[in-house]
Amino acid sequence: MLSAEPLPACGAYAVPMVASSLRALWNERRPAGAPTRVWRDWALLAVVVAGSALEVMVREDRSWLAIVLAPSVVIALSLLWRRTRPLAAVTVAFGTLLVFDLARLMFIDVTALSSVAAALVLSYALLRWGSGRETVLGLVVIAVWLAVTHLPDPTSPDEVLAGYGFFLFAAALGASVRFHTNARLRDIEQTKLRLRHELARELHDTVGHHVSAIAIQAQAGLALAASDPDRAVAVLETIDQEASRTMDQMRTIVGLLREQGAPDLAPQPGLTDIERLARNVGDWPRIDVHLSGDLDDLAPAVSAALYRITQEAITNAVRHARNATRVNVEVGGDPHRVQLTVHDDGDTVPTSPHTPGYGLLGMAERTSLLGGELRAGPDPKGGWTVNATLPASRPTTALNRAVQPPS
Predict the structure, then answer these.
(1) Nearest in space to 406 (alpha carbons), one of 212, 257, 123, 166
(2) What is the reported pTM?
């Protein structure tokens, strides 16, 4: 007889998934590159205002003219900010409609103009251009107005559902356009990334080949320096030519790897720039930086990695550490290695297994490439600690791999 073990309840998985989805929606950022205003916006404004004025003129009842016309004018003006300030546009427009409907319910007996249908464009823009927080808050404003707008003129449930359906359809259309646009941008970025990987591999193979040849010629020059100085000079000339060709090819490929625009000629930040990350006055939490030990002869790659790891760790602490008042950064070194510790005093929250964020993955990758180790997690004494250990100079094994000829 087979015994069946009870399966975990679906709710045990559903609740964390729903919570994670809601948190992702709340933290969603605005799409980049939202246009400000184009000629179509002014044309839409003119059509809405002109349609409202025409409808008022053909009405038999012209009482409360200004109150009837105001919502349409406000909606028309709000359309101009629907991309750059979607939540503000929705709040102003639907807030005005809400006040108008409350006035109809309590004081006046008039009907709204048909031009208020232009508010559908705001529902579309909210999901198309708003952040996660703006989307949630804006939908709440729209839902409140939809609940109130049917009170002055009681309608059947079918008409109420139709009203909700129109605005939900406009919002869903905006979300769909946003999703497909983001998917296309991701496809473009993936294509660029694949190309850059191919160019990086080509750069590795090209430079590795030429550096290997230079190393061989240098060894030959050393062997000939004492016995045959003339041939040693010829070897040095060959090394010079080979190095020049390598630099030319490397500049060409690196130029292709760069983003469009002028190259950034500023020096890369390093260990000496870490102290500039301190924030002791005005900002919160306070950030203290302490440097100690032998830190004078660090390899440039190690120095740059220390700065980037510190910058990312501080950014994570400022964004995610709850109730943190202080972030301590300590860098200590000896002739062989350098130790970086970034600790915040935020509240320790019990964590469940989850995928590390891209920031932690980037720090771990950068540390691993230089032959170091990275540890990050809750500190037993409270808060969160990032600890990175790096060699003071680039590992010899990495240099040896760099000069080996490609297989």
Answers:
(1) 212
(2) 0.53
